[in-house]
Amino acid sequence: MATTNITIPARSASGPEGKHAPARMKFYVDTKRCIECGGCEVACKNENNVPSGVARIRVVTVNEGKPGETNVAVPCMHCSNAPCVSVCPVTLCFIGQMALSTSIRIHDRLRLCLMRVHLEHHIS
Amino acid sequence: MKNFRLSLFSGRQVEFEGGGNSERNCEWLVELQPEMYAEIHPRLANDNRIKHGDWIWVESPEDTDAQPSRIKVKAKLTRRVSPDMVYLPFHWGGVLSGKDLSHKYPEGYVPYGIGESANTVMNYGYDRITQMQETKTGLCRIMKA
Question: Which of B28, B78, B79 sits opposite A42 (nearest CB)?
């Protein structure tokens, strides 16, 4: 498992450990490498006994079949030793320390993706 | 082959492998890829009045009982394929020409996912040096079911 080497600015970092302690490890998802194999979803369901119909990590495909197709893995970020990270064949997920502001921005974008999937599911 | 103007291609789904026997027995993998489909271009679908998710017949010139062999699959509209092309994943089995054959499985051994086999409509022909059969490309036509 690789880790990223992004240093945390002292002011923005405020985790559960204390006001100036580093933030909790976040997922870093490299969207250019994902091939949408679903290995992370299946590993998570196998390891955590998640029932079918529920997914704690889901791969969202944006612009499917068009130039610029992107697969974004949307993790739940709850495991400290996550099975979805270790099973990935292209090692696109890293667990590392990131600047809190960056992770929030990524998280907002992912939430938008999820909302889009939710809407598409209900429309079709 | 005037009536069969479309190219037919078979290929893999990234979740499955080979004939899909073991994968279609895994509940979580079938959840990711629940059914057999044919990928067609939106322009081709529009010419044949097919919508996304409609049932279509894919027919090939291969003769069985003086009838073109054919499969009934769902249409998936995508611009991954060109307008003169039909793509089929080959991991499926358990249905033949629209007829469900799941009652022929031993009791309790029916896979979670069954669908038409793409090899039903693959054309005849083989490589004259290696004697390998042609199961990757061919000709076909489509119509709405």
Answer: B28
